[in-house]
Specification:
The structure is a single chain. By secondary structure, the protein is an alpha+beta fold. The protein is built from two helices and five strands; from the N terminus they run ααβββββ. Strands 1, 2, 3, 4 and 5 form a five-stranded antiparallel sheet that branches.
Length: 136
């Protein structure tokens, strides 16, 4: 009887270790997915049509894309690491560089991006609009 309790407690410990390892693996996958999404978003802002860019937003109608102002993003550099503010919501701060097409001048603006995890099927989507870009 005593040895069966010992075996049972060891099985419980092994089960907990397996569960924790699986959770760590899932978190790593989610982090990698987040960084992959940021790379794709950066690429879409620079090279893709506005319709493709809207796919990164939970509410596309409020996205406030730079093309609305006659501008095109040319670079996005991450200023801060991602910070988890809720279970499925992360925030980062980036610097966006825009080309104002009418004058061929570069503008720079800070952008606090809020990203929400929608699950394995939908991945990460931006949960806030892009900043308003000055037309000056």
């Amino acid at each position: 009887m005593h040895s069966s309790k010992k075996i049972l407690s060891r099985l419980l410990i092994l089960s907990l270790i397996s569960i924790l390892a699986a959770c760590g693996s899932m978190q790593k996958k989610r982090e990698q997915s987040f960084h992959d999404t940021l790379t794709l978003f950066k690429h879409a802002l620079r090279w893709e049509a506005p319709e493709s860019q809207l796919a990164f937003f939970i509410q596309p109608e409020t996205a406030n894309l730079p093309s609305r102002y006659g501008m095109r993003a040319v670079d996005m550099e991450q200023l801060t690491p991602a910070v988890q503010i809720e279970e499925n919501t992360w925030v980062i701060k980036v610097r966006l560089h825009y080309l104002k097409e009418s004058s061929q001048s570069i503008r720079t603006i800070s952008d606090s991006q809020q990203w929400h995890w929608l699950g394995e099927d939908e991945g990460w989507r931006r949960n806030n609009p892009m900043p308003v870009v000055s037309r000056r």
